[in-house]
Amino acid sequence: MTPLTEVKFACLDTETTGLSPKQGGKICEIAVSVSRNGYKLEEFSTLLNPGIAIHPDVIAIHGITNEMVKNAPDFAAVLPQLLSLLDGCVLVMHNAKFDLSFLRSEVHACGLRLPAYPVLDTLKLARKNGCFPRNNLGVIAAALGINSAGAHRAMADVRMTEKVLYNFLHDFVRGGVNTLEELQKYQQKRHESVVLGLTPLP
Fold it and tell me: How far apart are CA 182 and CA 172, in angstroms?
């Protein structure tokens, strides 16, 4: 059993050209923040040249233009650094299914398979507690007193996700969830909940 205080969490977010890699969507920005027990260890963020045009409707959401990514590296160029950064980590994402689908697609296009990292989804954890009017990242951050400036850019969303995670962990520990394995089981259970105290960060 791994105490939560010893886990390296890698909060990750992607911005993309579309809603699904099956429809040809690609990653145009990625960010990661690695921490342990609330202490930042490393951060990484970069725009990516997706090799396709970003649709104006998508640009209106995240603000990343074709001009901004024109001279950015492609995903294959940053993959070795990304895999090194994520080694030994638990991946944390808000709506992990979305980001993982793009990551798997991009890694597969490089001729590799995404490693089977343990994954925590702050969206799932929020839904299980019913404490928020809506479970999107910005609403949860606002309820917890977390600054949401820059939302829909990868690093801003990563930092929000990281703060949301540690707020959740504080209350999970008070509720008797002390190890990664317990938290993973809790994330998957349908009818068990830990009531979050909505403790704002100082």
Answer: 10
The catalytic residue among 55, 94, 108, 152 is 152
| Catalytic (active site) residue 108 | no
Give me 20's structure tokens: 């699904």
Q: What is the pLDDT of residues 79-97, one digit of tens each?
A: 999 999 999 999 999 999 9
Contacts of 182 (CB under 8 A, 6+ apart): 1
Which residues, 6+ apart, have CB-to-CB distance to 185 below 8 Å? none
Q: Where are the domains of the chain?
A: 4-188
Burial class (CB in 10 A: 0-12, 13-18, 19+), 188: exposed
Tokens 């105290």 locate to 197
Q: What is the pTM of this model?
A: 0.90
Pick from 172, 119, 161, 156: nearest CA to 3: 172
Helices (H), 2-153: 56-62, 66-69, 75-86, 96-109, 122-127, 137-143
- Half-sphere exposure at residue 144, Cβ-oriented, CA atoms within 13 angstroms: 31
Q: Which DSSP state fits 19? A: S
Asked if residue 139 lies in contact with residue 58, where contact means CB atoms within 8 angstroms, the answer is no
Q: Could you read off the pLDDT of 161-198 as tens digits, one per residue?
A: 999 999 989 888 888 888 998 888 877 764 444 444 44
Tell whether domain 4-188 is in CATH 1.10.630.10: no
